[in-house]
Specification:
Number of strands: 16
Largest sheet: 5 strands, parallel
Bound molecules: adenosine monophosphate, zinc ion
Oligomer: single chain
Distance between the termini: 54 Å
Helix content: 40-55%
């Protein structure tokens, strides 16, 4: 079965054909670590995780690279304004390096809370300054950049294909440029290297052939992607806001440095919105996984909520729709929990599942398919379980990890005793099983055996 993906570059759903057979190289733009990731950002990482898992389902060995932007991302996309890291430092009184560490750790916790697989490689911009300087040198050698008083800029007029990804109307943009483009030659030109301000000691700055300063945001991605995946790799992802600027600029840099388009497929996740406004770090409601936990939501319910929509449509967040997702997930878990292990996946459902997910990651149809399966009396319960186990390798809801609330409320020691007792029973070690039941009773719990698993009730 072929895997088909919508490629923003060609604006077509295309069959995925990897560069190397059996392998898939995937680069996803990661977080700017100056604040927590909001659940809008996390929607993009959930989509990318589903993509990775789908590639794995199709037997590709995936090399998944995510960068950590810890320098160079300016508050304004027009290459001026403060560096987000230095602004975060001013906001909190911590150093830019401390800020980067705090929010990188928070990001890792987010990935775990949402069952997002850890990328194969996570690379920080500040650990790759020489690679970025080298890339800028190559652009300079091609005569595709120039110096202004505040930095080295890419001359987008030197790349005839500049902006194709976004179908940018370059002339219209140039004519309509109302903002002062300063010393920039073209409105779409962007910084490759910014000089440190004359009378200011920046926390993050490096020497370079052009003067002390720091790299622009776009060069880190093309330089690190090429380092870890090669100058042309399979798939590059990000949120849809990256199409007109960040990814267009990465492609221009790759044209200059490597003579490639950097990636063969460009995939973009659409936005999570609140009240018809995109959720952003500066506007709208700023919700994080910690907000969800504080309001007694399991972050995985948010994952379920995201999977209900196609990644190429914007979704509107509301607490009502999150509540519906919570209810649906809990009904799905209960159905799953009532089934025994030991079945085999239904062929009919497996092939439908693969057809849906390989059709540009249709997660909502896949979820609908699970509900169809739950209601289907012609499939044996244990086979339902085996089928859903397979589907869940892509959806990542971790249904098999779920423990009913009654057991969750019991202390960890009680759950551990009950788990050991279950093992003893399956080993037919009745004496040990009975002894563990007594110990549980002494702790104040009655263990009730279920079809598969147990429940712990307070005595
Ligand atoms: P940032 O940390 O701002 O660099 O963004 C991290 C990722 O989140 C990028 O891929 C963005 O395109 C994406 N993103 C930003 N805002 C949203 C949103 N409201 N919904 C979905 N994705 C978003
Ligand atoms: Zn990037």
């Amino acid at each position: 079965m072929t895997l088909n993906l919508f490629d923003t570059y060609t604006r077509e759903v295309r069959e995925f054909v990897p560069i190397n057979q059996g392998e898939a190289s995937l680069y996803c733009c990661g977080p700017t670590v100056y604040n927590y990731a909001h659940i809008g950002n996390l929607r993009t990482y959930i989509f990318e995780d589903v993509l990775r898992r789908t590639l794995e389902l199709n037997d590709y060995q995936v090399k998944h690279v995510v960068n950590i932007t810890d320098v160079g991302h300016l508050v304004s996309d027009a290459d001026d304004g403060e560096d987000k890291m230095e602004a975060g430092s001013a906001r909190t009184g911590k150093t830019a390096w401390e800020i980067a560490q705090i929010y990188t750790d928070a990001f890792m916790a987010d990935l775990e809370r949402l069952n997002i697989k850890t990328p194969t490689i996570m690379c920080k911009a500040t650990d790759h300054i020489p690679e970025q300087i080298e890339a800028i040198r190559q652009i300079e050698a091609k005569g595709m950049c120039y110096r202004t008083s505040d930095g080295i800029y890419f001359d987008t007029s030197k790349d005839p294909e500049y902006g194709y990804l976004a179908r940018l109307d370059k002339e219209g943009l140039q004519q309509g440029a109302r903002v002062d483009q300063g010393e920039k030659r073209n409105v779409t030109d962007f910084a490759l290297w910014k000089f440190s301000p004359e009378n200011e000691q920046r926390q993050m700055e490096w020497d370079s052939p052009w003067g002390k300063g720091f790299p622009g945001w776009h060069i880190e991605c093309s330089a690190m992607a090429a380092k870890y995946l090669g100058p042309l790799f399979d798939i590059h992802c990000g949120g849809k806001d990256h199409i007109p600027i960040h990814h267009s600029n990465e492609i221009a840099q790759a044209h200059a440095c490597y003579g490639t388009n950097l990636s063969n497929y460009w995939l973009h996740g659409y936005f999570l919105q609140t009240d018809n406004e995109k959720m952003s770090k500066s506007s709208g409601e700023f919700l994080t996984t910690t907000t969800l936990i504080e309001k007694n939501y399991e972050p995985v319910s948010y994952r379920y909520f995201c999977l209900l929509a196609h990644y190429r449509s914007d979704i509107l967040f509301s607490w009502e729709s999150l509540n519906s997702a919570v209810k649906a997930l809990s009904r799905m878990r209960e159905a799953y929990f009532s089934w025994n292990k030991g079945g085999v996946a239904s062929e009919a459902y497996t092939s439908k599942f693969k057809a849906y997910i390989n059709d540009d990651l249709n997660t909502s149809r896949t979820i609908a398919l699970i509900w169809e399966l739950i209601k289907d009396d012609n499939v044996a319960d244990e086979d339902k379980r085996a089928t859903v186990d397979l589907i869940d390798t892509v959806l990542g809801l971790e249904l098999s990890e779920w423990v009913p609330a009654t057991a969750q409320q019991a202390p960890a020691e009680a759950v551990e005793l009950a788990t050991r007792r279950q093992q003893a029973r399956s080993d037919k070690n009745w004496a040990v099983a009975d002894q563990l039941r007594d110990e549980l009773n002494e702790m104040g719990f009655e263990v009730v055996d279920k079809q598969d698993g147990f429940e712990l009730n307070k005595l």
